[in-house]
Amino acid sequence: MLPSQVDLNCLKSYLIGAMHDGTVRKRTLRISQKEEEYVLLLKELILGAGGRAWTYREGKDRNLYIVEFSRAFLEGHEFRSRRERVHYIRGYFDAEGAVASPSAPDPYVNLHRKTDSTWSAFAGYSDNQGSLAGKSTILVAGLIPTTGASSYRANPSCDSPT
């Protein structure tokens, strides 16, 4: 996906979701991942949307890559549509979720929450987008293609069927 093809509001919603595993600094936001390709893609998407972003590897011997960008890029963003909320969930999933092995007898997708406040982000999706299970896991159906997360990850365009 080219950065110019990304809906700005969907990108911002996605990044807010991904920040559940990010770091907030005085003037910047940081998202870290083991996959360099992911942080490079986020950087290109942010730059393509007119923001400022840079990437780097943290430490000499660590396989941890960081994309850092200005806090101003997300300031004042509010979810205005269902599609933007879905992209928020996509970002959250990429930060905190997991997909069962394709060879699993009963494939599933799960999200681990850190606090009760993050649980409320999924309010309203239990009836038509999945089911809530227990107090520590959310199972979300219909948000990830059955082909796996690789084709889904970091694709914050608004062309989703959801």
Descriptive overview:
By secondary structure, this protein is an alpha+beta fold. The chain has helices at residues 8-18, 36-48, 82-96, 116-119; strands spanning 22-24, 28-33, 53-57, 65-70, 97-99, 109-112, 130-133, 137-140. It has two domains: 3-73, Roll (Endonuclease I-creI), CATH 3.10.28.10; 82-140, no CATH class. The protein is built from four helices and eight strands. The strands form two sheets. A four-stranded antiparallel β-sheet has the order 1-2-4-3, covered by helices on one side. The protein has a four-stranded antiparallel β-sheet with strand order 5-6-8-7. The longest helix has 15 residues, at 82-96. The radius of gyration is 16 Å and the shape is globular. 26% of the residues are buried.
What order do the helices and strands come in, and which of them pair?
Elements: H1 8-18, E1 22-24, E2 28-33, H2 36-48, E3 53-57, E4 65-70, H3 82-96, E5 97-99, E6 109-112, H4 116-119, E7 130-133, E8 137-140
Helix pairs in contact: 1-3
Percent strand equals 15-25%
Which strand order does the major sheet show?
1-2-4-3
Name of the CATH class of the largest domain: Alpha Beta
Number of domains: 2
Spatial gap, N to C terminus: 18 Å
